[in-house]
Amino acid sequence: MWHETTKYKKKTGYTLKSFMEDNPVGNFVLIVQGHAVAVVNGVLFGNGNERFDGLYRSVWYGFEMK
């Protein structure tokens, strides 16, 4: 399971972009505002436009898949 850290880009928590910067290696399932996505070794998998429009969604929960 993903561990919490005190280093955030925003006071409200991680954005997808900051999460991917801090976790360049690993397989994660993230629950974000209104959606769920996967991040595999720093690459975002979601809807087609997610890589461009969704990078600043707040990450609510995260799970590391091993």
Main traits of this protein?
alpha+beta, 66 residues, 4-stranded antiparallel sheet
Can you walk me through this structure?
It is a single chain. The protein is α+β, with helices and mostly antiparallel strands and 66 residues long. The chain has a four-stranded antiparallel beta sheet, covered by helices on one side. A hairpin with a 2-residue loop joins strand 2 and strand 3. The radius of gyration is 11 Å and the shape is globular. The termini are close together. The mean pLDDT is 78.
Topology:
Elements: H1 16-22, E1 27-32, E2 35-40, E3 43-45, H2 50-53, E4 59-65
Antiparallel strand pairs: 1-2, 1-4, 2-3
Strand order of the largest sheet: 3-2-1-4
> Beta fraction of the residues?
25-35%
Q: Order of helices and strands, N to C?
A: HEEEHE
Span of the ends, CA to CA: 9 Å
- The parts where pLDDT drops under 50 for at least 5 residues are none
Oligomeric nature of the chains = single chain
Backbone shape = globular
Radius of gyration: 11 Å
Structural class: alpha+beta
- Report the major sheet: 4 strands, antiparallel
Helix content: 10-25%
The averaged pLDDT comes out at 78
Number of helices: 2
- In total, the number of strands is 4
